[in-house]
Amino acid sequence: MQVGGDAVTGPLPGRHSPVRPIWLCRVDANPWPCGEAKLALLARYDGDRPGLLALLASLSAEATEHLTQLDNGRRIDLTDRFLAWVRPADH
Ligand SMILES: [Zn+2]
Fold this sequence. Notes:
It comes from Micromonospora rifamycinica. This protein is mainly α.
């Protein structure tokens, strides 16, 4: 199934994709994942939480690498930004 229009990078749904290497949303310029991106990801990965978490973990690692370089090597922790919003549905 195609998600129409934009050149979507990889498995990211919708138009709210990150601008690398600054990791801001290309639509609304919020820190990615923005609200719309989260909604699109949740819809796309509905029922596949492990898949969503795996995707976000790899994106988080990529973003950490990029943003650390942009900030002269200062370590940043993007785990919360990328992963904390994905809560298990039932626990
Ligand atoms: Zn956005």
